[in-house]
Design brief:
single chain, five-stranded mixed sheet
């Protein structure tokens, strides 16, 4: 490991989370070549559903400081991540276009305090659902894109800007072309806001044309991991060799899928401030496995 800190020691230093999941990474890089010494350990952080602009004291009386608290918690990690990814719903929805832009701008200013400057973003339906991502793109750029990091190919899919909870044919064509550049044995990570599979369609916890994207991923079986947000809780699902992992939100938790008749934010627990809120660390090691660490947000 470049930092000279062994993984076990790093996790000990990181402290509050627990390793809950590991998935295979094959010994190939994202360009289809055999693994090289350049494919060493790396660490990234997933933050999700910050909902800047949310205002309901019964759900989160600390709504005006929760994002700042999360930024401080990431900055205080024993090992700083290689990069940070925000998996959507940066802001809370509003019909007012000026307010939407104002919230997006305030969000960008707050997360500018992160020590790590390699920060990736994607929209959620709260950011982009009412204007097809227009305001988001003005401040953050493209809503779908790809990048590589230390031999792993990452693809960000936008399943919120297109009306009807879809990825859309045009983006699916781009996705197919992007996958065509990658060796089928290469490690591949997909970031989305909504789940690609049908977790709870009645709650909008699905992507209407997600099955088309998952079909395209089948040739990469056992090498694909999906990280997503939207459901404000940790959830792990595996099908056809593809692993799907949602993260906690950073404004309010939501109930377990289908556990109550009506989906609604869970109320604030005064005895346990910030209960159900947090972010995730992902440690990608030389042993070709992801170790996930959940970091609950603390009250103090």
């Amino acid at each position: 490991m470049k930092t000279g800190i062994e993984r076990r020691e790093f996790l000990k230093l990181a402290g509050i989370g627990s390793v809950v999941f590991a998935s295979g990474l094959m010994g190939m890089n994202g360009l289809g070549h055999a693994a090289t010494p350049a494919q060493d350990d790396f660490f990234f952080v997933q933050m999700s559903d910050t909902h800047w602009g949310f205002n309901n004291p019964a759900v989160n009386p600390e709504a005006g400081t929760t994002l700042q608290k999360a930024v401080a918690a990431v900055n205080a990690l024993a090992r700083q991540p290689d990069f940070i990814i925000f998996t959507g719903d940066l802001t809370h929805t509003t019909d007012d276009e000026q307010v939407r832009r104002k919230r997006l701008g305030e969000f960008r200013e707050i997360v500018g305090a992160l020590k790590v400057k390699n920060v990736r973003f994607m929209p959620g339906e709260h950011d982009a659902g009412l204007d097809n991502g227009k305001a988001y793109q003005e401040l953050f750029g493209e809503t779908h894109y790809a990048f590589e990091h230390k031999g792993v190919h990452f693809i960000v899919l936008d399943n919120v800007s297109n009306p009807g909870s879809t990825i859309g044919d045009a983006q699916l064509q781009w996705f197919a072309a992007e996958l065509g550049k990658i060796d089928k044995k290469a490690p591949l990570v997909i970031f989305t806001h909504r789940p690609l599979f049908d977790l709870a369609p009645d709650w909008d916890w699905h992507t209407r044309d997600g099955a088309k994207a998952l079909e395209m991923l089948k040739p990469f079986t056992n090498n694909v991991t999906v990280f997503y947000g939207h459901i404000h809780q940790v959830n792990h699902h595996e099908a056809d060799g593809i692993k799907h992992n949602s993260a906690m939100g950073l404004m309010y938790p939501l109930p377990a899928p289908g556990s109550v008749p009506i989906k609604a934010p869970l109320p604030w627990t005064p005895s346990q401030p910030f209960k159900g809120l947090g972010f995730r660390g992902v440690d990608a090691g030389k042993d070709r496995a992801y170790a996930l660490t959940e970091y609950p947000l603390k009250g103090e």
